[in-house]
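ok so i was messing around last nite and threw this chain in just to see what happens. nothing serious, just curious
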Amino acid sequence: MATADDGVTERARAAGFHPRSLDAVNFLLADVRGALGPYLNVFLITQRHWSQTEVGWVTTIAGLIGLAAQTPAGAAIDATSRKRGAVVLALIVLAIGAAVIFAAPTFWPVLVANTGMAVVGDVFGPAVSAVTLGLYARRQLARRIGRNSAFDHAGNVAIAAAAGLVGYLFTQRAVFLMVPAFAVLAAIAMLSIPHRAIDRDRARGLDEEQATQGRQVPSGLRSLLRSRPLIVFALCAMLFHFANAPLLPLVGQKLAQSHPAWASAMLSSCIIAAQLIMLPVALVVGRTADSVGRKPILLIGFAVLPVRAALYTFSDSAPWLIAVQLLDGVGAGIFGAITPLVIADLMRGTGRYNLAQGAVATVQGIGASLSGLAAGVIIDHLGYTTAFLTFGAAACVALAALVTGMPETAGREDGRRA
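result:
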């Protein structure tokens, strides 16, 4: 299929697609997701006086239930031509969940709402990646995914600043009302991408030749289980997220306990500090991933995490904690920008790109969910320093697994030979 100079397919251009629509989708989806997450943990502990263990249970239960739906959701995104509709539906659920938390911030309503949001929250990544595959040529995929990630980080900066201002001027609880407002804007942006512009076969990882010839692709999970590099990458991702997921909430809690009146503003400062680094990191990854390779870039991202975890133990001062949080911009920024590329490399030609996205998200989500409960129990019994060191050790294991078990994926011609 012919493509324009900027990598957009002729089909997409003829249908009226403009790249700015996809930019807006990434920016606004970050706004929707960014008003939740660590703000919920800090709100429940500092304003509702929940224990760390209670918060850990809510995080873990919601996360594990949500994980059960991720791989089937990826398969459904592969199969459906209504990828825009899947994103809009997920936005509706997120908006309702945030409204429930605002109205009734007690254990069971929060657990149910958080579970619903966990089930739909990971629809966004695979769906947006699929839409991108369906709109752009493979030769421009690295740059476009890097640009997606950059706009995602820009959205995170914007929502963190807005949430900090709302939390300071009103209450931390008011932050959750931002979710429905941004959900409406995000839905409008997604629907501005013409349905007919998205090539369904390209969006699931099939090459044009395969789609034309009607070649059969592996069914179910077979194409995933036969790919050893994908399994290794998923395990590395699980360890990375087990170590990384609790760090920002824990730092936010420490800052909130020291400066309760500035809780939202302090947490926003941490988020903004990291996101401002992630934005250029994502652009650099997009520009260099083809020439340098995927693995060297991944190694840098994984190596930063244990250093960051250890540095948190050096001081409890707000300037120090926020400064260390800058390293999250390198580690998480690299991981977020390059993961869709690695999966696209490994699943090329299988038609199971979104299934693989969902499977990897499931495995890394298991790590993140278990870390929430682990963090709560460790802090309640042993304190913050032990928690940071524990997660730093887990990050070292993740780095070792990546070094020894993960091959370079750039240049693979067919994911079925992975």
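not much to say yet. The chain has one domain: 11-208+222-417.
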